[in-house]
């Protein structure tokens, strides 16, 4: 048979199969726009601004609707009520982790820890939380480490001598050293070239993951295997990271003292020894590499982006910065280093930190969820394994809870008497069973790093503050702020 005829017949069959699969499920799933064969609804979602696309679609189809990203149906939850009902009221069912092809490729199907599900996820999460607590999360010991790292950060910022400076890498070094002290039992000098190279790879990979191309690759996984693109650079950077982690694990194995674990790697190696006779164990060498890689990246980049965005917003709103300076002068002074005990006496600073996290909307659609079993949700039927997109943007930018949500206003988190007030809508770390395991550490770092910087410096913009643009340069998996320069003027 003529190859052209075979190709036409094959494509026709594929189109018919696509249409049949999409139509056969639409009577059960929530409503949504009519998908195209193979492409689904991909053309109706702006990959450069996914949160806004989801908001626009929710105005037509309601807070629970279905999108076909390629040939795969995905249910979108938009707005506080739908998110709360799913992640809290039906938390166990919605605790699965959705498909993420880019993650599967780099872990050879074992899954990155943030993408795990079932027993493997429970085991890794339980171990991570226990180990982080044992090494100081929420305790004075980790507070001391953060305070010391904040001091080192200030010393490096002084070396800029008030000149215009891009703070990206210094604001990455500090939180990275905190997580390194927990994982590797050591910190790095800020001028260590090997350390800076690793940070550059992390920074580059976060931009790649948030790009339009990667959103397309995740929806059409064949592109990952057979097409060139930035995903190749992502895989190369990730491989270099894993090579470094394997070298560190080997060093730990050679010097391990089971009676005196120094860090998370030691604790994992001890656990591996305890369960080595169990063929079903989740504690394997591959799992250790994945866990360390995830913690290393998450513990570095999320704090880095939030601090970078935070300083940009403080530059743009000098009246807010002045109030934080006043509160620091009154509560802490200029010579005592900030501590977590100060936070309860600094409601305005706490409100600013909350507003920064709300405003920047760091992970707009969270990491994909999935339902662990069939569920009837709001009179719709969602089959087991269906991917779920959680629109955290729709909660953090809810106009009823936060009037004029596009405006930066710390007053949202203050009552009439000036005391700090929280909001159920404040979900930068997500909510429910999949809430970020390191949120306690993150909150501690953000408070101590920001207050220490402002205790020691005035912030000066290189350009008119009215011309500062806080619009993210990419808005995919992460909201990545634009680069900018800032002058750190010693107080």
Automatic annotation (TrEMBL):
Subcellular location: Endoplasmic reticulum membrane; Microsome membrane
One Gene Ontology molecular-function label: oxidoreductase activity, acting on paired donors, with incorporation or reduction of molecular oxygen, reduced flavin or flavoprotein as one donor, and incorporation of one atom of oxygen
Keyword field: Endoplasmic reticulum, Heme, Iron, Membrane, Metal-binding, Microsome, Monooxygenase, Oxidoreductase, Signal
Cofactor(s) required, per the database record: heme
Primary residence: endoplasmic reticulum
PANTHER family: CYTOCHROME P450 2C9, CYTOCHROME P450 508A4-RELATED
Family: Belongs to the cytochrome P450 family.
Protein name: unspecific monooxygenase
Organism: Sciurus vulgaris
């Amino acid at each position: 048979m003529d190859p052209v005829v075979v190709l036409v017949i094959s494509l026709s069959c594929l189109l018919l199969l696509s249409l049949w699969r999409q139509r056969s499920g639409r009577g059960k799933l929530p409503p949504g726009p009519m998908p195209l064969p193979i492409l689904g609804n991909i053309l109706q979602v702006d990959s450069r601004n996914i949160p806004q696309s989801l908001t626009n679609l929710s105005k037509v189809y309601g807070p629970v609707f279905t999108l076909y990203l390629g040939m795969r149906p995905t249910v979108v939850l938009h707005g506080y009520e739908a998110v709360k009902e799913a992640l809290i009221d039906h938390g166990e069912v919605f605790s699965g982790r959705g498909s993420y092809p880019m993650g599967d490729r780099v872990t050879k199907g074992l899954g990155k820890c943030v993408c795990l599900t079932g027993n493997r996820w429970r085991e890794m999460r339980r171990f991570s939380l226990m180990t982080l607590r044992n090494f100081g999360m929420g305790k004075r010991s980790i507070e001391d480490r953060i305070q010391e790292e904040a001091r080192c950060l200030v010393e490096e910022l002084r070396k800029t001598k008030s000149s215009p400076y891009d703070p990206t890498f210094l604001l990455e070094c500090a939180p990275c050293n905190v997580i390194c002290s927990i994982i590797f039992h050591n910190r790095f000098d800020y001028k260590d070239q090997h350390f800076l190279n690793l940070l550059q790879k992390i920074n580059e990979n976060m931009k790649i993951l948030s790009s339009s191309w990667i959103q397309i690759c995740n929806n059409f996984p064949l592109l990952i295997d057979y097409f060139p693109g930035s995903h190749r650079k992502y895989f190369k950077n990730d491989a270099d990271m894993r090579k470094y982690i394997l070298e560190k694990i080997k060093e730990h194995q050679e010097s391990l003292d089971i009676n005196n674990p120094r860090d998370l790697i030691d604790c994992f190696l001890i656990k591996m020894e305890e369960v080595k006779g169990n063929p079903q164990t989740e504690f394997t060498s591959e799992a250790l590499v994945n866990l360390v890689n995830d913690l290393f990246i998450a513990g570095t980049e999320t704090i880095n982006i939030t601090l970078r965005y935070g300083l940009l917003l403080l530059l743009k709103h000098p009246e807010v910065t002045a109030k934080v300076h006043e509160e620091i002068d009154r509560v802490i002074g200029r010579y005592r280093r900030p501590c977590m005990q100060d936070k309860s006496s600094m409601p305005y600073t706490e409100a600013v930190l909350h507003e920064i996290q709300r405003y920047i909307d760091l992970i707009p659609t969270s990491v994909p969820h999935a339902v662990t079993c069939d569920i009837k949700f709001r009179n719709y039927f969602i089959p087991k394994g269906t991917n779920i997109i959680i629109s955290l943007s729709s909660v953090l930018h809810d106009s009823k809870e936060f009037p004029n949500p596009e405006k930066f206003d710390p007053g949202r988190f203050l009552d009439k008497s000036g005391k700090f007030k929280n909001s159920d809508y404040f979900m930068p770390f997500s909510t429910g069973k999949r809430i970020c395991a390191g949120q306690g550490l993150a909150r501690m770092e953000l408070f101590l790093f920001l207050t220490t910087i402002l205790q020691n410096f005035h912030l000066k913009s290189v350009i008119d503050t009215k011309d500062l643009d806080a619009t993210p340069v990419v808005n995919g998996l992460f909201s990545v702020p634009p680069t900018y320069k800032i002058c750190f003027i010693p107080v």
